[in-house]
C-alpha cells in the first residue's frame, strides 16, 4: 500500500495526515499521540474512526497539526483520519458518515462588530 494523505479542518485547526500500513502508531508533530494529547478523552476522539472500523492496529499515521486549540485540533484530526480511511476503502464511507465523522463542522468564531465590545455583546445602556 502506498502512502495516503488527507486533510481535516475544524475552527482554526488544520490537520494534514499521511497514512501507511503499520502497527497503529500515531505521530503528531514528531511526538506520540499520548504525549501530544495527554487527555484520554481527546485521544478517544482521535481514534474514533479507527475503532469504528476495527483498524486501530493496521495503519501508521503521521500528522502535521497546527492552529486552534486542543479540542479543535483533535476534531480536525478525526476528520482527516476518516477521509483517509475512505480513500483506502470507499465501502467504509457509509459507516463513518452514520457516526458523523465525514462531516466538516462549519462552526467558527463570529467576528467582532464595530461599536461593540464583542461579536454580539453591546455596551451597557444608561438611561441617565
From TrEMBL:
Organism, per UniProt?
A: Bacteroides graminisolvens DSM 19988 = JCM 15093
Chain positions covered by the region annotation Disordered? 97-128
GO CC aspect terms: cytosolic small ribosomal subunit
Against InterPro entries, the record matches this protein to:
Ribosomal_Su5_D2-typ_SF, Ribosomal_uS9, Ribosomal_uS9_bac/plastid, Ribosomal_uS9_CS, Ribsml_uS5_D2-typ_fold_subgr
GO MF? RNA binding; structural constituent of ribosome
Tell me the PANTHER family matching this sequence: RIBOSOMAL PROTEIN S9, SMALL RIBOSOMAL SUBUNIT PROTEIN US9M
Q: Does the keyword Chloroplast apply?
A: no
Name of the protein described by the UniProt record: Small ribosomal subunit protein uS9
